[in-house]
Each structure stands twice: as structure tokens, then as C-alpha cells.
Design goal:
Blueprint lengths: L2 H8 L19 H6 L7 E6 L2 E7 L1 H15 L2
Antiparallel strand pairs: 1-2
Amino acid sequence: MIAPIYFDLSELEEFESKVIFLKVNVSDHPDVASYYGVDGWPTFQLFRNELLVDSIVGGQAAKAGLYPLVAKHAQ
């Protein structure tokens, strides 16, 4: 399950004041999923200055690559 990994990342001191972690239930907000082109679950999208800069789709991919992806853009 990816939720605990996501939560742990959101609590890391190294990302404090650098990253805002948000979760959107696309079942409750299909308009948001459509707007951002989300068609696979889970989808993690990283934005900088309101622009999409990176993303990762799929639980197994996220388990392996979510931390490096966030760390890369948290600088």
C-alpha cells in the first residue's frame, strides 16, 4: 500500500517548507482528475510555480521512485 509511504514522505523534515503534499480522491472529484489528465491510480504529480514538472503513475513505481522524485524537485 502506498498511503503509508506517502504519509511518511509528507512528514520528513527535509521537505518541510519546500513541498506541499495534497491528496485528492478522484472518485469524489472526477473533474479534477480530468483536468489534470489522471487516468491511472495512484498518480503522483509534482508542480512548481503552478506548472506540472514531473509525475509517476502506479503503486509499484511509486514505491520505488516517489522519494527520489520528490527530493529531485524539493531543492
